[in-house]
Amino acid sequence: MKKHIYRLLFIVPILLSSCSEDRLDLIPEVGDVYDGNLKNEDQMAQVVQGIYPKLGSGSNFGADILIQGELLSDNIFVSNAAGDIAYVNTAAFAWHSGNSPFGQYRGLYEVVQQANLVLNDTNVPINDNVLSLKGEAKIARALAMFYLVQGFSPNPTSGVNQEYGIPIKNDIYDPQKTVGRSTIDEVYDFIIRDLTEGIEGMANSSRQDKIYLSATAGKYLLSKVYLTRGKSGDYQKSIDLVDDILKSSSNFSMIEASGLVNYFTSKEISLLENQPETIFEISQTSISNLGINTHPGQYYTFNASKRRLMMRTSLYNTMNSTKDVRLSLFQTAQAPTVDDPKGVWLKKVPQSTSEGANTANVKVFRMTELLFIKMEALAKLGRKSEALTLLNEFALTRKSSVYKGDDIITDILTEKQKEFIGEGLRFYDLKRNNLPIVKTSNCNGNICEVSANDKLFVFPIPIGELDRAPEVKQYPGW
Predict the structure, then answer these.
(1) What is the pLDDT along the chain (478 residues), one digit of tens a residue?
(2) Residues 6+ apart with CB under 8 A from 477
(3) What's the count of helices (H) and strands (E) in the chain, helices before strands?
(4) How far apart are CA 203 and CA 42, in angstroms?
């Protein structure tokens, strides 16, 4: 058993840069030898460790989820100078269930399946460490489920097709057992329960490195889940969680403007990784990394082999008008002339570090977003003046615009766009607020605007996944 689990955990990083779906055939191999329980605490720890290569795969948070969050918005476009078609169809909204680029449907359920090995175990005696490992697995499962429901279901506050949640899979993997969609309410209840219990389980965890999930990561996710679900009482719960994190989380603190350049662009690991600002990041080393074909730095960096992802100049010009301190994270030089208007390179996703190419950890969640979660929740509770005060206090630290608050949600999201461009949040911010996508230039196709109720806001489940699970119904329109 130990040999087979070891193969499951450590063969995955070698395959992270592969586009083949064959890597998922590892799961039945484990099923052949798995007897329903883990043998001991060490083995449970190994299985939890194996969650992270799955979370960090190219289809998940290593690349695609974060890049899609930019391309499916008004933030980033694919330069016409790109030498191949990678991400071109994604940016153009030129996809359907037969050519779905959303491999995270399978990839995130792999995370769920790995977590379920731990959460369904009844053999290993309970102690504080086992409770912490199970808590970590619950937070990981909730993270996967949250991004599945955000992508493959409509927004819970849209009032549209609320029966089209995602399948809830909380049993040990069985290729013969498939389940249909749950309602969106049921899915969010499941996620909230996992996060609540996971945070409690990890209360005494000694996890320090940001390449692992933590109780703080669980609280961050729960604050965002409440913000997204938007039921009565949810916005205040979101605010309370943010305040709790900001007051009591050791090893975590928000970054000052003066630290942004080193945080995002330094070649030195000690300045770039495991920083107080970071809540969670994907590990990349010289031995195990996403590689030249997948690491997001290869797509964002102006001189990398896969360079193509660029910021629209309109947002850059807005920031330039106030001499925003974040301008140092962008580069206008060497922009391809084939784009009209020319784009702007981002320096926030480095290609390499002092340890070599593709070794920069991929930042996923960071502390500064907590302020924006609180601002949005305050605004949605009608506490506009409090939200506006926080917004302008933050904008002042970045030498950004002064906001009047006439449309407070738009103002909050505009400043958030400036702060987090390139980090995969914009699509989900627009969707959560039932706002359209409006690409003012560089459309990468014929679709420049997407209305808030368009089916394009709900990803099609890849047809191969539907063939394997006939109970799962495709979202209407796909």
Answers:
(1) 322 333 344 333 333 333 333 323 333 334 434 566 899 999 999 999 999 999 999 999 999 999 999 999 999 999 999 999 999 999 999 999 999 999 999 999 999 999 999 999 999 999 999 999 999 999 999 999 999 999 999 999 999 999 999 999 999 888 888 999 999 999 999 999 999 999 999 988 888 899 999 999 999 999 999 999 999 999 999 999 999 999 988 899 999 999 999 999 999 999 999 999 999 999 999 999 999 999 999 999 999 999 999 999 999 999 999 999 999 999 999 999 999 999 999 999 998 999 999 999 999 999 999 999 999 999 999 999 999 999 999 999 999 999 999 999 999 999 999 999 999 999 999 999 999 999 999 999 999 999 999 999 999 999 999 999 999 999 999 9
(2) 455
(3) 20, 10
(4) 20
> End-to-end CA distance of the chain, in Å?
42
CA atoms within 13 A on the CB side of 474: 17
Residue corresponding to tokens 């390179």: 345
Beta bridge partners of 282: 362
* Residue type present at position 422: G
Q: How far is 466 from 219, CA to CA, in rounded Å?
A: 33
H helices present in 266-342, as ranges: 269-272, 297-300, 313-320
In sequence order, what are the beta bridge partners of 310? 77
The 3-state DSSP class for residue 184 equals helix
How far apart are the C-alpha atoms of 176 and 388, rounded to whole Å? Answer: 53
State which amino acid sits at residue 82. A
Residue appearing with tokens 């995370």: 111
d(CA 190, CA 145) in angstroms, rounded, equals 9
pTM equals 0.93
* Count of CA atoms in the C-beta half-sphere (13 A) of 53: 22
Mapping DSSP to helix (H, G, I), strand (E, B) and coil, where does residue 370 land?
A: helix
Distance of CA 224 to the CA centre of its chain: 12
Q: Is the Cβ–Cβ distance between 312 and 75 less than 8 Å?
A: yes
Say how far apart CA 100 and CA 462 lie, in whole Å: 5
Cα–chain center distance at 82: 25
Residue 214: CB atoms within 10 Å: 25
